[in-house]
Amino acid sequence: MGIQAPNAQNNYGEVDDKLARQKAIDEWLPITSSRNAKWWYSAFHNVTAMVGAGVLSLPYAMAQLGWCVFTFTMFVGMTFPFFSGLLGFFGGFAFAPTTYFLPCIMWLAIYKPKKFSLSWWTNWICIVLGLLLITLAPIGGLRQIILSAKGYKFYS
Question: What residue intervals traverse the membrane (predicted)?
Answer without folding.
Answer: 39-58, 65-83, 89-111, 123-146
